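Hello K.,

You asked for the raw outputs rather than the summary table, so here they are, unedited. I folded two proteins back to back in the same session to keep the settings identical. This is the first:
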Amino acid sequence: MPEIVEQKEEFFIYRLDDFEGPLDLLLHLVKEAKIEIKNIFVSNITEQFLSHMEQLETIDMEKAAEFVDVASTLVEIKVKSLLPKMEEFIIEDEEDPKERLIRQLEEYNLFKEAGEKLKQQENVYRFYKQPDPKVSDSRVILKSMSLGGLLDAFSSMMHKIALQKQAIIPKTIIKDRFTVAEKIDQIKDIISVKKTMSFFELFESDFTKSEMINTFLALLELLRLRVITCYQATLFGDIILTKTGEQDEN
């Protein structure tokens, strides 16, 4: 018999100088022009998000996806606001980063409303696998580092790529070449052969922002499932991904 689980949605509250509330409230304020995007500091939001996530026993993939998408867009906006305009690369019909964020938030609201209806049906037919008795718990394994370190590395890489793309004439937007589920399978195949790899090897230079987010979420899911572990030997050093059990055997 499928287990019917009643889920109560919880909202994480962000507290900034001129904003306090969940993502839905941020959407409303941005749409009503009651808050300026420039006044939203990504570092402050990230710090609060990480503090909240570190108190949880498992990573909430849905909330992580929402945060990474909006935060990476905010980083891109900050970068564009700091860099000088390159007149020769200005495209008249190019979408403004602020307008893009508002559009993404509006899309998020529509998808969320549709998602709520699907959730009600999904939960009725959801089966739950019993935990592996050989595994003591289901928490993400992060050796010699924190979830914050992992997100910092991702944020830094997004910032670097945003800088590089400022000097590139915008191209036609293409469809993502892979989904999160497909990337999970790709990483599993690679790590099963190589046993160990660098965090930065996961991200190709031609990845779109969406593809980078898909890759990062795939990594978080593999960590949650304990398929892989990650550790950082030195502060600010490379992040090493290892097939679960390999590090202990070596």
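The second followed immediately with the same parameters:
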Amino acid sequence: MLASLGIAVFLAVCLAFFWGVNLYNLRRHSTERRGEEYRAEVDRPGGVAVMLAAFGTGVFFLESGLYIILAFMDHFWILGDSVFQLRFSFDSQVQLSGIVITGFGYALFIWSVLARGKFATSWEMPQNQELVTWGPYRYVRHPSYLAYFILFTGFFLIVLNLLAAIPLVAIPGYVGLVNREEELLTRRFGVEYLKYRRKTGRFLPRRKT
């Protein structure tokens, strides 16, 4: 197993960038779009999809923070000695792959946040909302959700604890949310979105023919 403190430093740096970029974009969004009138195209989603997405994502950030705290307090044995901890001969290599995957996930998420800027999709959008088709959106329609899928997987490979697999339940939740989100975007942008959808994949780049 890799040193828990080193992993904790890596996760702390990633989370600092994650929240820093999100807060910057939120502040920018509220400043640049102040006074604009927002309207809803479809009803807000609810049900199992929302609950799964919210629960899994919340657990992911909770467990990430808990890992960092336990490692810095030298109490990582609470997790490391639990019955849920996985151990095998090549676990360090798996953890290294998890670090690479997690780093890519955070980079993709931050890229998507910076690319969409003030034009983030929401259930209520202003009249002058633009369809974001640049940055990672050139390749996939939902790069932020894809980034979450990568982060949940990478975190499990880093921690190698069955409790770290709980965030994976968010994946089917986000897949369910995408259906409503694409309905929203189709109503909002019409033919423009249909053309964009034909050129891109939901979560993986569409193969060019």
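The chain has one domain: 4-15+50-119+129-199.

Happy to rerun anything if the numbers look odd on your end.

Regards,
P.
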